[in-house]
Amino acid sequence: MTARPIDGKALAAALRAEVAARAAALPYRPGLVVVLVGEDAASTLYVRNKERAARAAGFESRTIRLPAETGEAELLSVIAGLNADDAVDGILVQLPLPAQIRTGAIIRAIDPAKDVDGFHPENVAALALGAPRLAPCTPRGIFLLLRAAGVEPRGARALVLGRSNIVGRPMAALLLAGDATVTIAHSRTRDLAAECRRAEILIAAVGRPAMVKGDWIAPGATVIDVGINRGADGALVGDVDYQAALGVAGAITPVPGGVGPMTIACLLENTLIAAAARRG
Ligand SMILES: NC(=O)C1=CN([C@@H]2O[C@H](COP(=O)(O)OP(=O)(O)OC[C@H]3O[C@@H](n4cnc5c(N)ncnc54)[C@H](OP(=O)(O)O)[C@@H]3O)[C@@H](O)[C@H]2O)C=CC1
Ligand SMILES: Nc1nc(=O)c2c([nH]1)NC[C@@H]1CN(c3ccc(C(=O)N[C@@H](CCC(=O)O)C(=O)O)cc3)C=[N+]21
User: Fold this and answer.
1) pLDDT at residue 43, rounded to an integer
2) DSSP state, 238?
3) Pocket around ligand 2: residues whose beta carbon is below 6 Å from it?
4) Where in the chain is the domain with CATH 3.40.50.720?
5) 55 lines ligand 1 (CB under 6 A)
6) Within the chain, which residue ranges are assigned CATH 3.40.50.10860?
7) What is the per-residue pLDDT across 40-60, written as a single tens digit (0 to 9) for each?
8) Listed residue (104, 123, 101, 102) closest to 112, CA to CA
9) Residue 271 pLDDT level (bands cut at 50, 70, 90)
10) The Cα angle at residue 190 between residues 189 and 193, in degrees rounded to 5
11) Which CATH class, in words, describes the domain spanning 29-112?
12) E-strand spans in the chain?
């Protein structure tokens, strides 16, 4: 048996086209601003992809690039300016931030109505209470991928590998809101392989190249690979041993071309949602 690949690139293109059509019908252009502090290679790539997608959707899109040595007070004042700017519907501060800046202080400073990452405590709380407002883009994109692949979370045993604030935790909350039976595994989990093997839906978000082996996967399971890692040859590798998984899983997302493009499409969708809520 060969697993069915889930084409995130195609689904993301469809969602982006839908967002562009909805944006074209508005009497204003939705505005998205990305703030990038320093020059982390992966972040630079992501920011470029995002800017291109936002422009193609007809958004007003801007990237503010600040030097790596920027202080917290300086970044807070940039955010205050964006909060006050009526043309700005969405603010995304690219993570990770340099060590001299407290990430929590920055996230709390963003107007929750413009928090298109869904990382502000108010938006996190809404999701935790089962009534998501602006949901984090990667988990939201994964949820849409599952739906498009015809995978029903309701009643399914789901395993989320990873508990970060940007992927693992919100992913678990969304799956729970979708009536899955959710387990969260992490670096202190005793028998990772055994936990994975029980899952009908396996979401890998650890940041370890090809850590999830073929024999960790239940036959027929749906495998979502969030990992974006650089292999020895510089190529992108996911968190799952893709070749091995193909022979066991029922469906699987590739890297690249799986979760990543959906993250960007959902960022555009969140910006549209934020704009509609702010501007009516
Ligand atoms: N495609 C996309 O759109 C996106 C992709 N990514 C990618 O997804 C991956 C994860 O990102 P992110 O959540 O930010 O990463 P973090 O490093 O913040 O979190 C990793 C999580 O994995 C757990 N973990 C790490 N090593 C192990 C191990 N050996 N065994 C078990 N658990 C382990 C950690 O456990 P503990 O908490 O115990 O330390 C932690 O909860 C990365 O490759 C990242 O590049 C991220 C965002 C978007
Ligand atoms: N505030 C904040 N929000 C984020 O959402 C956020 C962040 N910080 N920091 C970094 C991670 C990582 N991330 C990715 C998004 C898209 C791709 C992506 O487009 N990937 C494509 C292309 C990759 C390529 O061509 O190299 C793919 O997987 O097919 C990857 C990674 C968002 N993140």
Assistant:
1) 85
2) -
3) 43, 45-46, 49, 92-95, 117, 137-138, 228, 236, 255-257, 260-261, 263-264
4) 135-259
5) no
6) 29-112
7) 877 888 899 999 999 999 999
8) 123
9) very high
10) 90
11) alpha beta
12) 4-5, 31-37, 60-66, 90-93, 157-161, 181-185, 201-204, 222-225, 229-230, 236-237, 251-252
Confidence at residue 46, expressed as pLDDT on a 0 to 100 scale? 87
Q: Which of 59, 63, 30 has its CA nearest to residue 46?
A: 63
Superfamily of domain 135-259: NAD(P)-binding Rossmann-like Domain (3.40.50.720)
Amino acid code (one letter) for 209: P
- Distance (angstroms) between ligand 1 centre and the Cα of 170 equals 13
Q: Is 226 in the pocket of ligand 1 (CB under 6 A)?
A: yes
Query: What value, to the nearest 5°, has the Cα angle with vertex 49 and ends 47 and 51?
Result: 65
Question: Do the Cβ atoms of 39 and 68 come closer than 8 Å?
Answer: yes
**Which tokens is 159 given?**
């395993």
Q: Which residues contact 266 (CB under 8 A, 6 or more apart)?
A: 15, 137, 138, 140, 141, 144
